[in-house]
Design brief:
about 40% helix; four-stranded mixed sheet; single chain; three-stranded antiparallel sheet; globular; 11 strands; about 15% strand; 9 helices; alpha+beta
Length: about 250
């Protein structure tokens, strides 16, 4: 693990309780609605304790209902919104709180009927909301360097560890996470909502879900450098996440 920034414990109180089994991941302490993260133990790499965010209320009122036009694509509208309203924060707890609002919106139960995956339940969406909240602390720099990465980057493995999911169930969650590729309405929702986390969701997986997860990256981030670095390191990180699985004694 690489840690080059202050190791202050990250804390946040969220609107709903998280599953206690998140405590299986080193560095995470969940006590109902209260979450504490020890950066030194949790992160595989933690080099940057600054994030770009927008208050969720600002996104909700100012962007979610905006429509693209013949002259303004939704991506340009989102970029302009980030430039106008984005601010830097070093409060990781605030990042988690905003992320929880983002993913409570994106993985809401009303989407169940349109996902095209009959085995997905409201419980699965809750798992995705919780995992994606932790994923918001991951970070990629403009040059494509991965500066922050924790176990939840590889959420099929992380959710498998936490929720005792089979490989098949983990892959099914992966399909829902990446499903906005194939659903234009969800893709547009995601572009708008992720402005609250300072950028756009970039999928680590490319041609098919392969446990590469994703990260909210700033517009203009080098995707070529990011892809090369992720490909060179993900196997080691995934193996470490899998080592946290609870095995029957």
């Amino acid at each position: 693990m690489t840690t080059t920034v202050a190791k202050t414990t990250i804390t946040v109180e969220l609107p709903e309780a998280f599953d206690q089994r998140w405590n299986r991941l080193p560095g995470i302490t969940v006590d109902g609605r209260h979450i504490a993260i020890d950066p030194e133990t949790y992160f595989f790499r933690f080099e940057n304790s600054s994030w770009l965010v927008i208050d969720w209320e600002t996104v909700n009122s100012g962007l979610l209902h905006a429509e693209e036009t013949e002259t303004s694509a939704v991506e340009q509208i989102a970029l302009d919104f980030v430039k106008a309203h984005g601010r830097s924060t070093s409060d990781a707890g605030e990042v988690l709180a905003i992320a929880h609002r983002v993913y409570s919106y994106l993985f809401r139960d009303e989407h169940l009927a349109t996902l095209g995956l009959s085995k997905i339940t409201a419980e699965h969406l809750r798992m995705l909301r919780e995992a994606a909240t932790f994923m918001a602390l991951n970070k990629v720099e403009l040059d494509g360097h991965i500066s922050n990465v924790g176990p939840c980057w590889f959420f099929p493995s992380a959710t498998g560890v936490v929720f005792d999911l089979s490989e098949e169930d983990g892959q099914m969650l992966d399909e829902v996470y990446h499903g906005a590729w194939f659903n234009e309405h969800r893709r547009i929702e995601g572009i708008k909502a992720h402005t609250a986390l300072g950028g756009r969701l970039v999928h680590g997986c490319q041609s098919a879900p392969d446990q590469s997860g994703g990260v909210v990256a700033a517009y203009g981030t080098s995707m070529a450098n990011f892809g090369v670095e992720l490909a060179g390191m993900k196997a080691e990180w995934i193996q470490q996440v899998e080592s946290y699985r609870v095995t029957a004694s």
